[in-house]
Amino acid sequence: IEYHHLQRIIDNACSSSGTTRVKAPRRLRILCLHGAASNSKILAFSLRHLEAKIKEISSSSLSSSPSSIEFVMLDSPLELSRKQVQLWGDPDILKMFGNNGDLKYFLWYKHQLYQRMAPSQKQKEGGGGGGGEKKEDKKSKETKARTRIINLPTKLWHRGTHLAGLEKSLKHISAFYHEKGPFDGILGFSQGGATAALLAALKPRWFNFVVSIAGFVSPPINALYKTINQHEEEGVGETEGGCSLLPPLLQVHGKLDETVTLSDGKKLCSKFGT
User: Fold this and answer.
1) Contacts of 213 (CB under 8 A, 6+ apart)
2) Nearest to 170 by CA among 28, 17, 37, 11
3) What tens digit of pLDDT does each residue of 125-150 get?
4) What is the C-alpha R_g of the chain?
5) Pairwise CA distance, residues 1 & 72, whole Å
6) HSE of 120, CA atoms in CB hemisphere, 13 A
7) What span, in angstroms and rounded, lies between the C-alpha atoms of 213 and 207?
8) Whole-Å CA distances, 105 to 38, 92, 268
9) Which of 66, 65, 74, 34 shows the shortest CA–CA distance to 178?
């Protein structure tokens, strides 16, 4: 996953790039990204108590603070089939909301494992023809080697070597940002938290803060974060005077989470220097 390539994808999806940190409007607006095998309706349901509490606090605070909050929900462009939902979905969520086709489920990208397969026995024997064994050079053997692509279930996300669909999702979010934005901050749950943090790191002037609930750093994105941090240190990224403009990150995590462990959450925090 290459830094400049993703930047071009995001910029091409937008009518114009953000040039300054957005100023908070009267209504606090937060862009919200659901988790894997989920959707905006489920996330809105999960955030209903938090939304009510924030509105309660803001209504009794100083007049200079936002009078209300708006959680703006967005579904991923990657819709799952009913069979795929079973692979990536949370059993408790599926039990509550069902998987009968009435409610659509999405994810932001697929964790995939690329396995290099050795040539088959028939290939090794020169195809089994009557001309005897063929002497094959190294390049020919490498060409015949096959790659098997495995879609990993949610609990094996950390074994992923590649991500499928990330570029399409970033393009989708970026187009939505310029159509419905600006937003004060971005919030995401699980895979949505990972995606929200990545977008904020790539486009730090778009958001004043990031809230990641059980977010993480997918293995293929590790190197990308290193490039982002290097660009900031050298003052060649989206920075002013070489100073980091990465928005502050609030990571909310459950200590007993087994799918995305607390250690996984801390790795995401480290990318933002927190």
Assistant:
1) 187, 188, 189, 190, 193, 252, 253
2) 11
3) 454 444 444 555 555 555 445 788 98
4) 22
5) 28
6) 5
7) 17
8) 5, 14, 25
9) 74
Q: What's the predicted TM-score (pTM) here?
A: 0.79
Contacts of residue 252, Cβ cutoff 8 Å, sequence gap at least 6: 211, 212, 213, 214
Residues 114 and 147: beta-carbon distance below 8 Å? yes
The residues that bridge with 3 in the sheet, in sequence order, are none
Which pLDDT value is given to residue 128?
46
Q: How far is CA 111 from the centre of its chain?
A: 11
* Contact present, 206 and 249 (Cβ < 8 Å): no
Q: Is the pLDDT reported for residue 153 higher than 90? A: no
Closest C-alpha among 80, 32, 7 to residue 196: 32
Give pLDDT tens digits for 154-206: 888 888 899 999 999 999 999 999 999 899 999 999 999 999 999 999 999 99
Report the Cα 249 to chain-centroid distance in Å.
Answer: 15
Using left for φ > 0, alpha for ψ between -120 and 50, and beta otherwise, residue 242 falls in left
Residue located via tokens 């290459």:
2
Cα separation, 53 vs 73, in Å, equals: 18
Q: What is the DSSP string of the chain?
A: --HHHHHHHHHHTSSS---SPPPP-SEEEEEEE--TTB-HHHHHHHTHHHHHHHHHHHHTS-TTS-SEEEEEEE--SEEPPHHHHHHHS-HHHHHHH--SSSS--EES-EEEEEEEEPPPHHHHTGGG-TT------HHHHHHH-EEEEEEPPGGGGGG-SEEESHHHHHHHHHHHHHHH---SEEEEETHHHHHHHHHHHHSGGG-SEEEEES----GGGHHHHHHHHHHHHHT-SS-BTTB--PPPEEEE--TT-SSS-HHHHHHHHHHTT-
